[in-house]
Structure formats: structure tokens, C-alpha cells
Amino acid sequence: MTDNTTLFSGRAEVYDRFRPGYPEAWLDHLVGSTGIDASGEVADIGAGTGRLTEQLLARGLQVTAVEPNADMLALARRRLGGRAGFRAVQATAEDTRLPAHSMDLVTVAQAFHWFDPDGFRAECLRILRPGAYVALVWNSRVPTAPVTAATAAVCRRWCPGFQGFSGGRDDEPARIARFFGGSGAVLARTFPGDLRLDRAGFLGRQLSASYAPRPGEDGYASFVAELSEVFEEHRDGATMPFPTVLRSYLGQLPDTTA
Fold first, then answer.
1. Are 22 and 109 in contact (CB under 8 A)?
2. Residue 7 CB: number of other CB atoms within 10 A?
3. I need a labelling partner for 20 at 20 to 30 A (CA). Which of 56, 79, 210, 221 fits?
């Protein structure tokens, strides 16, 4: 069985350089809907290199980045270690090592599909204060966009572990509804997130994926060459449109074990 905690080992630098942040409109929605203020404690779980953690800190929140991968967490600590309100712990989503009932908000950006949802749900119930929220968010490629289809075709040829973007599991309504307890109170929203990428940005976005071949591995040169062809086919001048939408799910967790 693949160990999800090591999938991004050796990819921290390319991940941090080429993955986008999250729209400020969504952050406004998050803060406004939860009512969290500067005294609020946030657990950013599966924090990676701290892309969302950094944006939450900029909002004046107290943020603990929880990340199991040593490479990713080391980069987050290097970038954010001097920031007020920042803490970090190397731990999993299912066992965060955080104190019980200590958090006012849990955020998960681009990572829920790697978690065991039942184990993570139980951990959220343990660490959250009463009435607190969980936010699941993805920057997702628009599936109907031609560039998405072309990129997926290249990935299927050269990436044996490719099962779809975000593991093929980033848009499973039943899985998300089960996590939130089937209460129907989940606030689901989408936000515009379209990007424009130059050649380096487009290639880097693909090479930061967990399934992408690494330099020197079989298929790497062909993978990069075919992605370069996709860029040439879809570019408009020096950049290309990269249709993206931010999908957000925000809700409280009823304790269904009670």
C-alpha cells in the first residue's frame, strides 16, 4: 500500500514554487462565515509547504501547520518560522498531536483526498472547540477545458500512478457529505480561480504532482516533451490560460457517535 505521507518527498521546492495560493474572495468568505478573529486558533492540516498557512497568518490568525512530510514541513518552517502566530507539527491528519478542544477552525487545502476520512473526522471532533468549523478547499482544473483533457492524456501515458487530478477523488459529493455527517448544513461554494501560466509555470505545475516522474526516471523526458507540446498548442503569446475553479466546503461536524 502506498504511504501517502511520503508521496511528496523530494518535491517540496517545485511544489512551493509552482502551486498557486487561494483567492482572497474565498478567504473573505471563510473569515466571514466562521466569525473567526485574530484570537482564533486554526489547524491547517496537510499544510504542505504552507501556501494557505501563510495567507491565514496574513489575516492575523494563529495557525498551526500540521504536515506529515518532512521535506514539505521543513520548507514551511524555513519560510514562515519567523512569523507571529505560526507553529508547526509533523503529524498526520488522523493523529495531529494537538491538544483536545483547542482549535477554532480546521482548514484542509488540496489534501483531503489523501486522508482517511473517518479517522480525520474523529480527530477533528477531538481537537475542535464546540461550534467550530472545518473547511475543505481545492484549486481544481476545469474538467471540460481542452487543456485539462490534453494534460490528462499525457499523464495517462507517462505516469503509472495517475488516477485523475487530485488522485481522482477531489470531487466526490458522497464522500464529502459523509465526512460532514450527512447533516445537509455544508456550505458549498465555488470561486473563480483561472490562471495564466508561462511554459515554466505549466511544466512546474505538472511536475509538482505526486504521480509525476522525477528527473532521471523512466518517462521523464517524454513527459516533459509532450507537456511542452500541450503548452505550444494552447498558449496565447508567452502564456496560456489554465482554467481553474476554487471549490470550498465549509461546515460543522455533528458528533454522530453520541
1. yes
2. 15
3. 221
